[in-house]
Amino acid sequence: LVAKRRDDYRAPDFTITDVALDFVLAPDSTRVTSELKVSRQGSHSKSLYLDGEQLTLLELSVDGSAAQDYQQTESGLTINNVPDTFTLRIVTEVNPADNKALEGLYLSNGVYCTQCEAEGFRRITYYLDRPDVLAKFTVKITGDKASLPTMLANGNPLESGANDDGTHWILWQDPFPKPAYLFALVAGDFDQLTDTFTTQSGKSVALELYVDKGKRSRGEFALEALKRAMRWDEETFGLEYDLDIYMIVAVDFFNMGAMENKGLNVFNSKFVLADQDSATDEDFFNVESVIAHEYFHNWTGNRVTCRDWFQLSLKEGLTVFRDQQFSSDMTSPLSNRIKQVRVMREHQFAEDASAMSHPIRPDEVIEMNNFYTVTVYDKGAEVIRMMHTLLGVDGFRAGMDEYFRRHDGQAVTCDDFVSAMQSATDIDLGHFARWYSQSGTPQLALARAYNEQTDTVTVTITQRNAPTADQTEKAALFIPLQIEFIDATGQHVTPDQAMYADNLLIVDKDTTTLTFTGKGSAITPVALGNFSAPVKLTSDLTPAEWLHTFRFANDAFSRWDAIQQLYNWCIEQYYQQQPHAVDENIWQGLYQAVEASLQETEILGECLVVPSFETLCQSRSNIDVHALNTARKAFSEALAEQLADLLLTIYQANQTDAYDYQPEQVRARRCKNVVLGLLAQLPECKDRIIAQFEASDNMTDTLGALKAAQHHDLVLFSNLMNSFEQRWHDDPLVLDKWFSLHATCERGDILAQLTLLRQHPQFSQQNPNRVRAVVGSFAFYNTTGFHADDGSGYRFLTDYLLELDKQNPQVASRLVTPLTQWQHYSSTRQDLMKRQLARLLEDSGLSKDLYEKVSKALA
Ligand code: B3K
Ligand code: ZN
């Protein structure tokens, strides 16, 4: 298995301008006829090579005569001596019913569905399956009329009709040239929701949402969210929808969240279906954000696409940034920013520290599906956000306008994007662009010194970029650091030197210093405001100064972060067996901070969340997993005891009446349920948990009660879980929450529990949502179970992956992640984890997907 390298990019030897596809659907023998207009690019006499996997070739002709001179391999087809321009006709057969990898064309639950990104189209027919070949598609679908009343493809429906044999057909045409990864076909029997949207220029767009029969009312929220996203993109970026019809289909079997196929988005039903009874506030949030994300791809991804897959962040980082800004506008900036930063600190920093570390624009790839990562997506979005910070709102908009002016209809690179941004504003992004090529999390360390003679405080910020698994050579990055300074009285002070802008310092060298003269010795820097860069920051602040920061900083994110840093410090004392270092002053300070914030529901709720175990790992090494997990819990319990009376007040003050998914209520429920989670650690909380569970009229409070019960006591937990199962046993999407709660329960017999869950009638290894809910929740979030000292958790995951990999390599490859992230742990544990990785590598039939990650993790 050889890696492809970004540097090896070559423009295609041939291109395809027009594609006519004809599908005759049948479960195990779907016939695909493809007619391609092919033309040679440049002057050369090379053969035409087309990608194709797992296809049965039935016919091949060039300009109407059967081709003779061709060779077939496992991965493609070479046709020799072709003319400069010609029509190629290919007939292949595929087996959708047998397709458990859910890539290409597959049939599940009676629905035919495609997933082509990144390289799935080659499992449908032979093609130039690369994003820089853009063609116009027409698609004819023929299928059984009774079981497949709805048959969809990209673009607009042109004609349809019925045949005598009980089948019917429809012809679709997409006027926009597109790469094959944006092709989609869906056929099945759905409930439909329809609406219209009038664009800012007055064009009417038909909106159509397709969901499982009987789930119509659960689709209403998604449709409203779509309209909000369409309006927002017009208002914020001047971007209007470009076809007459926009379709979204929700399917139950899907490898990831959703897919932005031109005019025909395919969604995991988890990110479409939502109502008060079945969905939490977080689910509603996710639906709105994924709906928006896929919609925004129509411009950032589809109208302007990627030249090659190494450029993936061109569309993903940018589109994540856009959906983040949208969500922030729809809900609130603070909780959104905190959510985003949690993803970075829990998952992206972990990826950077692992064998899978890669720049947001990777240099080397074996299996592209392995690179739809938190680095490409979320760190990619942070890089776009930094440009937004540096250019300002108007500068960024000008850059986006310039990007579309230059590149609409093209397949381009990350460099093209940066260059458009730069030219629209004259801001030199040369040094900044290193964020695209350098992997790893920069470490900033902030230290202070006071010179009494001159009454000068010197603040020194050092930047360190440690070698990563993929890159040994590192250079200083261009880091926009939002920073404010407060004195002992809480007044803001400014440094002697001018900065890039108010509160914005550029850290672009190994060492950056600022001085404060005549302002006394007690200056508290509040750095990394709004998480202005994806970096780790350490500083010499004392617990008292973190509390001071919470009290006086202007930046709300920094106030939250100060409490998180303080918690981290406290947990470290417990971890070092010095819980008494967390003294009366600290507890009192925390008590007062919370008491002073009773009215600020949003920040209060977030401040009462103790950093996750995964986050704690990112600032430590040689970790004793159980000691750290225990320290975290002991601190959390102490926090609950110390604040008990305040927590009760908060719990009571944040009861909401008649459920509505609306920001103020969401904040109150969040705050209330975070508090319940803390109180659940105290013995006297049982009745409160039961009362909330029984009185709840919405999934948010129900789940809040179940989570609290999980921390409180196993008997209570089992009772409530049983009653939940009774109510939801025939609703797999809701039952995923139940699966996941069971799988994350820290109990001695967890492996036996997992075995039971796998035997549950609603569990299916074929369905990625179920697998993620059970096995994923366990491996990612069951700290004591997964990290059992005898290695049984690692063994369980490995056994499972050896099975799953044979069916669905993409999902298997995602689930192996926790096993590959052994770097932070003690060496005995590392050995246990590597022993299981070695077992995977011994499997001769291992997929490319797993091979790439496992072999790196063992290198
Ligand atoms: N572009 C798709 C992801 C495709 C993943 C392929 N393994 C969804 C998205 O980012 O919007
Ligand atoms: Zn995307």
TrEMBL record:
SUPFAM superfamilies: Leukotriene A4 hydrolase N-terminal domain (SSF63737), Metalloproteases ('zincins'), catalytic domain (SSF55486). Keywords: Aminopeptidase, Hydrolase, Metal-binding, Metalloprotease, Protease, Zinc. Residues 440-539 form the Peptidase M1 alanyl aminopeptidase Ig-like fold domain. Its EC number is 3.4.11.2. It catalyses: Release of an N-terminal amino acid, Xaa-|-Yaa- from a peptide, amide or arylamide. Xaa is preferably Ala, but may be most amino acids including Pro (slow action). When a terminal hydrophobic residue is followed by a prolyl residue, the two may be released as an intact Xaa-Pro dipeptide. CDD domains: M1_APN. It holds the Pfam family DUF3458. Residues 81-182 form the Aminopeptidase N-like N-terminal domain. GO terms for molecular function: alanyl aminopeptidase activity. Residues 545-859 form the Peptidase M1 alanyl aminopeptidase C-terminal domain. Residues 221-433 form the Peptidase M1 membrane alanine aminopeptidase domain. Its cofactor is Zn(2+). InterPro entries: Aminopeptidase_N-like_N, Aminopeptidase_N-like_N_sf, PepN_Ig-like_sf, Peptidase_M1, Peptidase_M1_dom, Peptidase_M1_pepN, Peptidase_M1_pepN_C, Peptidase_M1_pepN_C_sf. It is an enzyme of class 3 (hydrolase). Signal peptide: none annotated. Belongs to the peptidase M1 family. NCBIfam families: pepN_proteo. This is Aminopeptidase N.
